[in-house]
Amino acid sequence: MLHSYAKFNRRPIRRRQRFATRLLSAVSGLLFLTSFAGCVPRAESDVVVYSALDEEFATPILDAFERRTDHETGVVAKFDVESTKTVGLVNQIIAEQPAPVCDVFWNNEIMHTVRLQKLGLLQPRKWAVQSGWPSDMIASDGSWCGFAARARVLMINTDLVPAEEYPRSVRELADPKWKDRCAMARPLFGTTATHFAVLRARNGRESTLQFLQQIHDNAVILSGNKQVALAVASGELAWGLTDTDDAIVEKDRGGKVAIVFPDQEPDQPGTLRIPNTIAVLKNAPHPTAAGQLADYLVSAQTEDRLAMGSSSQLPISRDSEYKPRVLPDSPVRWMKVDFEAAAEGWEDWAAELMQLFND
C-alpha cells in the first residue's frame, strides 16, 4: 500500500487493511522517518521514495509496483509542497545525510539529481536497461538513470503567427522582430534553468550570458513554463519557449496552438530533452527494495504509462510501445548533452542569473 505524506506530517492519504494489520502485529519493528516537521511512521518492509513528480502522476505507478510485489513491499511516498518542489526534497536529502531516510529519489528533472551525485550522496549501480541507453541519460558512475523526458519546445499561437513565419530556433527569442511578442520563463529554476546551464556547457559562459541578456531585453519574462503556455494559448503573446507537458495540455484543451521542436537544421544543436531521473541513496535503509523499485521506475512499462498520461512524456527505451501524442510525425533530432558538465559551478552560475533576472 502506498502512503503519501505532505510536508507537515499529515496522516496518510490512503490506508489499507494489510498495512494496518501489519502495524498492529509488528509494533516493535515500527520505524520513524524524520520529516520537515515531525516523524513519519512506516513498517520494516517499506521503501521510502521522495518524489518531485506530481502526486497525481506518481501514485498510480507506485501502486502498480506494490501490486507487482504482491504487496510484500510497501511504498511510503513523500511529495513536497509546490512552493519548494525539487529544491525542498534535495535539501532534505542533504540534511539527512548522517542518517538517510530516503531510499529512492524520483526527480522530475535532472540538474539537482546531478547535484546530489557530485555531493557523493547517490549509490552507483548497474541499471536494468538495455545496452545502448543514451549516454546523456545515465550517470557516468551509474548513480542515476534518466527516463521519460520532457522536451523544450516552441509553442505558437496559430491565430497570431502564420505557419510560414513560425520560429524554428530558441535563438529567435533574441530576434528584435519578436520584441515583446515572445516569452520565456525566468531561468532560475526548473527546466529553464537546466536548459541554460546546458547551453553554458556547450557554448561557454560569456556567450550564454550575452544570449540571456539579449533575451532579457527582447522577450517577456514570466514566472514559469506553465505561465508561458497560458499566455500563448490565450493570445496574449505570439509564441514562447516552454516544456512539452505544458504545451500539450493547452493543445488538448482545444487551444489554437502549434508545437515546434526547435533547432532541427544540420547546423543547429537539436531539441533539448530533460528526463525524469531515478537514484538510490547511498546508505539507503532498504537497498534491495530500493533497487527493485528503481529498476521498475525506469522500465519501458513505466515510460509507456507516463507517455499515455496527460503530460505525454517521451520514452527513452527502445522497448516502449507507445508513441506520445506530443511528438511530430517526423523524427526529432535530439541535442547531445553532458548534464554532469552542465551542473559544474551551479551555485555561482545561479547567482549570476539571479542578478540578471531579479527584476
Automatic annotation (TrEMBL):
Pfam families linked: SBP_bac_6 (PF13343)
Origin superkingdom: Bacteria
Keywords associated with the record: Signal
Signal peptide: 1-37
Name the record gives this protein: Extracellular solute-binding protein
